[in-house]
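Entry 12.
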Amino acid sequence: MTPSPPPPPVIRPLWVALGFVLTGLGFVGLILPGLPGTVWFVLAAGAFARGNPKWEAWLLSRPVVGGLVRDFREGRGMPLRAKWLACTCIALAVAWSLTRIPVLAGQVAWVLVALAGILYITLWIPTRRP
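Predicted 3D structure (tokens):
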């Protein structure tokens, strides 16, 4: 696969700004259950790669974050414990917030979104064994 050409110099600062926003969302996702942090970090690394490779290298050098992004890029998947934790957090977040949705159709849609996330994690993301 050939790498895409670099964006015009005028757009690069926008990619870097987007990378910082996505990195912030990633850190919030590490703290809050129900918000996946890894997805945001992977997107941030992609944005930084288009804007300024120095910031991509900075993100990849972070102790926890860098490993998550590298594992995703190399197709290694998630450890089994992380999969259990992610699925449990999704289930707990949905169960906690379900009573706050007043319409039955909204509740059903919310449960379906949660089930789709759990199915994605369990079926499509490879399990990395120690």
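Annotation: The chain has six helices and two strands. The chain has a mean pLDDT of 86.
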